[in-house]
Design a protein that fits this description.
By secondary structure, this protein is an all-alpha fold. The chain is 72% helix and 0% strand. α2 packs across α3. The chain has four helices and no strands.
């Protein structure tokens, strides 16, 4: 991470989704975790992203109330 980018927080932001997806190499994962251990801003960002993913996973498993589904359908704008 450090060699490629001068701003470690910008690079951490770039690597956040791959980190959360568990697709980084071992070396990238270790480097990301070292930065998260040292940087309160990036650690807060990580916790937000992790919470957002949890919320989205829960939201997609809950059935949408019929009334809400109808209201959303009424808001659609035809693509002509």
């Amino acid at each position: 991470m450090k060699d490629v980018h001068q701003d470690p927080c910008a690079h951490c932001e770039e690597m956040m989704q791959p980190y959360l997806d568990h697709i980084l190499t071992e070396a990238e994962r270790v480097e990301a975790e070292l930065h998260l251990d040292e940087c309160e801003w990036c650690r807060r960002r990580y916790r937000f992203e992790e919470s957002l993913r949890t919320y989205v996973r829960q939201a997609v498993t809950e059935p949408m109330p019929i009334g809400l589904k109808e209201k959303l359908a009424a808001l659609r704008i035809p693509l002509n």
